[in-house]
Amino acid sequence: MTTIVNQGELDLYNLKIGNETDEGKVERVMLSQVKRLLLDKGYNCDKINTIFLNKVIYFSANKIFNNKNPGLLLSGGWYKYGPCYEKGRVGEGTRLFLEPLQPSKRVLEEVEIVFNEEFPLFIKSAENDDQFYHSYLDHIYKQKQEHDELKDFYLTKNEVCFNAYNLAFNKEGVSSEQFRKNLLDFEKAALDKDYLGFTRLNEDKVDRILKLISLVGETLIKYTEQKDSLNDDFLEFQIKSMAFNFDKFIQMPFADKNYIATFKTNNAHFKLIKKDEMEKQFAKHNDYIETKLTETIELMEPYKTLLM
Description:
Elements: H1 20-40, H2 50-67, E1 76-79, E2 82-85, H3 86-90, H4 109-128, H5 134-143, H6 148-168, H7 176-190, H8 193-199, H9 203-230, H10 233-244, H11 246-262, H12 268-299
Antiparallel strand pairs: 1-2
Helix pairs in contact: 1-2, 2-4, 4-5, 5-6, 6-7, 6-10, 6-11, 7-9, 9-10, 9-12, 11-12
């Protein structure tokens, strides 16, 4: 892979972002500084993904924007896993962002402060929370929330996704009753008037998606309550796949609207196209998820009698 030359000499305290080229330069500078901090700690960069990188870049850029350079507004908002910058959102979850970069020789104070705050929490979560970075995201949603209208949505989303996985994969400490409460809490948050007003989501469409999510969730509950007597490998595989994808079922119908509602930019091009582009993506994602949820429910239909 071609190595991108480090651009650490770029002055982020005076640069004004106006287009995608400027944003790319800022991103590379900050990521190369994060890479330096990771290497200094002796940490394998291959294990870091954008769930962490997004937060460090987003919060570091905000610190510089608020305290030193009002021209450094890196385009971004709140998406699937909370705060992220635009390119990080597009590649959310990937581990490839750091690979082609040389580590910087210089690290800005703002980047180092944010990194040192977030890194121990992310690593602890990565080691203890299996797939979902549950405790790290809980920290972000409770301690770093910038929009009160989104707080309950993200907190309840985090719980219901994590416990769907725990329930299906026999993790200790999660009961059917707890997961059912998680579902109800999420439904309440997603139908909250302040949340719907802030995101401009259509209540009827949200209600339809939530009913499908609830049916999938109840299927998961019924299976886990009877799995010892069922002894069906195919059904077990389908249930675990359903639980593993619960995060996608929950995220995709809402993430685009959350992002549109919180999106900030100095990029003139993005100001013209981004919200329209995201509205189209929202419609596409919703159609896809409604179809996938319906297919999942239909897939379980032959087991309906068994799972009474």
